[in-house]
């Protein structure tokens, strides 16, 4: 039986899902997330794609911007606060293609990007996810 998708959530609804994902992050990690902001964009721009080694805008669903928590020092003061950007159109495409619950998908991407805040690499996070299965 085909899954029913429904109307695409607005950027504001995406932001609400992302902020709700933050509330589900357990202590002690949650205690170190203050100041991280969430931004919703339709797609990553060409400069961002190039910086992460991608060419296809649908391949990037989220990105952490900032220094990992362990790399912060008094010398990083005056820089922008850490932020997570979610890319709405690639997330919508993945939602439609996979049929996974959109809130679960947004939560997955938010937690992945929060992992970068704590200095975890993509390989570290994939290993953690594989170990949790």
What keyword list fits this structure?
133 residues; three-stranded mixed sheet; 5 helices; 43% helix; Zincin_1_sf; Metallopeptidase family protein; Zincin_1
Tell me the distance between the termini: 26 Å
CATH class: Alpha Beta
Question: Residue share in helices?
Answer: 40-55%
Number of domains: 1
Characterise the protein shown here.
It is a single chain. This protein is mainly α. The chain has one domain (11-132): Zincin-like. Helices cover 43% and strands 11% of the residues. Strands 1-3-2 form a 3-stranded mixed beta sheet.
Summarize the structure.
The protein has 133 residues and is mainly alpha-helical. 43% of the residues lie in helices and 11% in strands. It has one domain: 2-Layer Sandwich (Zincin-like).
Q: Could you give the topology of this structure?
A:
Blueprint: H1 11-23, E1 37-41, H2 46-51, E2 62-65, E3 83-87, H3 88-98, H4 102-117, H5 122-132
Parallel strand pairs: 1-3
Antiparallel strand pairs: 2-3
